[in-house]
Amino acid sequence: MIARKLRNIETFTKLLFGYSEIAPKQRELLYLNGSTQVICAGRRFGKTNYVAGKIFYYATIHPKSRVIVGGPSLDQAKIYYDLLTEAIELSPLKGFVKKTKDSPFPTIYLKNGSSITVRSTAHNGKYLRGRKVNLVVLTEAAFIKDSVYEQVITPMKLDTGAPVILESTPNGMNYFYEEYQRGLKNKKHTISFHATVYDNPFLDQEEIENAKAKTPDYVWRQEYLAEFVDDDTVFFPWKILVEAFEDYKPEGYKDGRKYSIGVDLAKYRDYTVIIVLDVTEEPFKIAEFHRFNQIPYEEVIRIVNDLQAKYRAQVYLDATGVGDPISERINACVPFVFSQKSKSELLHNLLLNFEQQKLQLPASNTILRDELRFFRRIQSGSGFKLEAQEGYHDDCVMALALAVWGQTRRQEAFSTQLDIL
Ligand SMILES: Nc1ncnc2c1ncn2[C@@H]1O[C@H](COP(=O)(O)OP(=O)(O)OP(=O)(O)O)[C@@H](O)[C@H]1O
Ligand SMILES: [Mg+2]
């Protein structure tokens, strides 16, 4: 019976997820072979499901093997663990599994001595280093630092000969792009695979068309068609942003630390975002993050005042238009009125803080990450407009810029005092 289940990876994956059929491109991914496999595919194609199928199959047919899935944050890598544990529970393949363990590193142990464990690639890959592995998967690979790939994954591969699977949507011209290009040319060791959202016929076609109608063309091409789009209107280049993302959980209030609060208020259909930044020392870190919509202003005022009292921090608030009367009801509020000039200064200050590596953001906050990635500098008449891509929000970007602005102003005031002395 077991032998029949293991006959081929396709049957195995169907049993794992309860699928009755598998589409041609998805099948191609399952059978992909090569010591480096670069899977560049659009959102919703089936990246996670089929790579998860591949690794569970690998661990089952290779006794005593060790598989590691690394992601920019443990939360992102853990998607594999959650998907697999859930699918296994409902599947006839359950018999292959001995036990699962949630912490410290979520791991699935098979009866044949194999294991599948998930880890974060943060802190320069320290959770991956020095491990004996037989198969390495990097999920959201294009969001992992080049240095981790070059200094940790490549030596690991040379050491152990373990195949490496890179799985991602494209994101800039980084190591993932270079490996993908290498795979297109040299088909011997590095194999490149490409698929779009349309290669998954099991999605609701109407839903895809709705998403397409709401998504700017360039974002659509990158995220769903998995094209490497070279766009010179990017305001925060990924090679600068990547340095800011680390895997940490916002820690909330801690005694003896200094904070700055940035608030961007919802205007029409967008969100109110509140970011509490710990500015005790560089790099500044997020202590608390809130994003909500459709909450009456009275309630927003209460939430912001509660945070102000808790953190004893100044509040930098977008006081343009409707924000003006609200700013008067917020304690320790420094109102910030947006004009084209002040907005540009605010955002350039944020960019400078990124360039100088003064900020550290949680890698698992993909909403903040994507708002930054899709923030644009667009030519308008003789000048430039700084704004979110149509169809995207910029509330997180603005709240962060305001919180950072507060800190910069404090430093400027301090250096002016020194000048006077
Ligand atoms: N053969 C199939 N039969 C039925 N549903 C399928 C099949 N293959 C994939 N799907 C469904 O397609 C959806 C997308 O799959 P998956 O989450 O793996 O895609 P992804 O590329 O990782 O997406 P994301 O970009 O959101 O991470 C899932 O709901 C999955 O169950
Ligand atoms: Mg996925």
UniProtKB/TrEMBL annotation:
What range(s) does the Terminase large subunit gp17-like C-terminal domain occupy?
261-403
| Alphabetized UniProt keyword annotations | Viral release from host cell
Q: Does the keyword Hydrolase apply?
A: no
Q: Which domain of life is it from?
A: Bacteria
Note whether Transport occurs among the keywords: no
Which InterPro entries does the annotation name?
A: P-loop_NTPase, Terminase_6C
Q: What is this protein called?
A: Terminase large subunit gp17-like C-terminal domain-containing protein
